[in-house]
User: Fold this.
Amino acid sequence: MNTNKTITRSNRPLILVTNDDGINAQGIKSLTQFLLPLGDVVVVAPDSARSGQSAAITVNVPIRMAQVDEQPGYKAFKTSGTPVDCVKLALNVLLADKPDLIVSGINHGSNSAVSVVYSGTMGAVFEGAIHGIPSIGFSLCCFAPDADFSVCGEVVADLCQRALSQGLPNGMALNVNIPDTDCIEGIKVCRAARGKWVSEYESRLDPFGRPYHWLTGHFENAEPDAEDTDEYWLARNYISVVPVTPDRSLNDIDNRIHNWMTD
Amino acid sequence: MNTNKTITRSNRPLILVTNDDGINAQGIKSLTQFLLPLGDVVVVAPDSARSGQSAAITVNVPIRMAQVDEQPGYKAFKTSGTPVDCVKLALNVLLADKPDLIVSGINHGSNSAVSVVYSGTMGAVFEGAIHGIPSIGFSLCCFAPDADFSVCGEVVADLCQRALSQGLPNGMALNVNIPDTDCIEGIKVCRAARGKWVSEYESRLDPFGRPYHWLTGHFENAEPDAEDTDEYWLARNYISVVPVTPDRSLNDIDNRIHNWMTD
Assistant:
């Protein structure tokens, strides 16, 4: 069939955009507007919300993809898949040239601390990094569907322009969280705060007496005073930039695990 | 309601078991048999296959959970959620005491190299590690539904007994892959081989002329000769043990990213 890799690079940078809130979310619309001055933009995004999809892929059913918009320097496609599926479909089915940059978001809500593990926004970013493409995820710390993303414009343009001109250090992707305030104090490179979500379910009975369980709860920061963490700086109205990697292997394995295995 | 945390510890270790192939898969049945000599086993697993779910969580609909079996020292529950949901439900809704060990699998098929990123089996393991519980994922390098898991019994018992008696080094979880052979040569601690899946879609037209896309393709190992990688040793009939972490932050951020941000 002829859908294969019909999109080629112009003389401008080629930027792939996705998200996990779905193609109709305000966050991806704002992101696209911020990126159009920097290059040609191809949006490949889920047809509806895929929050909490992490790096999930669709393996047991096929995926649909359809073009929904086209303007000069801009094309948009919706898919029935996850954020990672969207990146894979873009790279394998749509784009004849490798994109210069993958940008995911802008997420409606924080992806700081341990949320990076569950985030579909960041799942797409890890997929880009696996393919050796500079990849950045942006999240605004506001879950409202009608959130005002204008505060994000400057940092999106700055970091994406840097990534287009310099790439990113090898194996590194970025998780950028933006506080929901008009008074941003600055930007900090940091690491994800350790912690976990607690009290996570609200259990109810349905009209027929059978239980069902809603995921809820709150994040418990294990190191609220650590000045090198994203949570610390977001609480102080700074943008957090966390360098991340798709590599799940521990670096310092040598002694600890070998001792463990032979004890 | 009264489903909350009714399962308490006996005088034996408490082991939580889950998987991503679903509660009826042979892999989780074999795993349970291997673990019953080591402690009390509570199985909380998806009601059907959830392959490729990574660390996805269910956020927009509630989750169902129902007990499906009970024997002395053994209880089993199925859920409508993902592997991570299963761990969260077990910890928050079922278990009054924190389990001593979380074991996920035995997966039907390899979770070596970059597959750890997409694996629901390993998503559950990362969730356990986030909660500070020793967590191990096991996968047999055979996708067949009727795979013979007997080759896995010895390594499951050995590593899980070690984890029960010593815990695991702080912040470390284990990704264990087992070659599909009767002639296992040994066991190696290693890291995930770098690489990516390529040629990933088979695109077809439905009876109405509309395209759909099946995820397929193959893994391209970027470092086939690296002797410290899981792929290298699995190909030589060794069991691979990869220490992994749920932390996505890069450790060596200091100079590279600060230079990048200020260039």
Chain A has seven helices and 13 strands. Residues 153-166 of chain A form the longest helix (14 residues). Chain A touches chain B through 80 residues (CB under 8 Å). The first strand of chain A starts at residue 14 and ends at 18.
